[in-house]
Predict the 3D structure of the following.
Amino acid sequence: MLSRDNRTENFLARDTPTSLDCLAVGYLSLALVPDLTSPWLREAMQSKAPTVTQYVQRMGAKCFGEDPIEPSQALNPP
């Protein structure tokens, strides 16, 4: 389970990522990644659930790299 101690790799169910981690990161990324005109959900998640926010950011970087993901990349793969 996730803990507030970010010194170690934490995943939701086991010591390695599972399909549950993939589902959670995909779903929660919808609150953090899109650049919306009213970012209230992102701001609420960052202030009220910082551990979850850090988990999503860490897993996103691990899966997709450090560069920002553009919506056009999802719609027009190389």
About this structure: The radius of gyration is 13 Å. The CA atoms of residues 35 and 42 lie 9 Å apart. The chain has a mean pLDDT of 83. Residues 50-64 form the longest helix (15 residues).
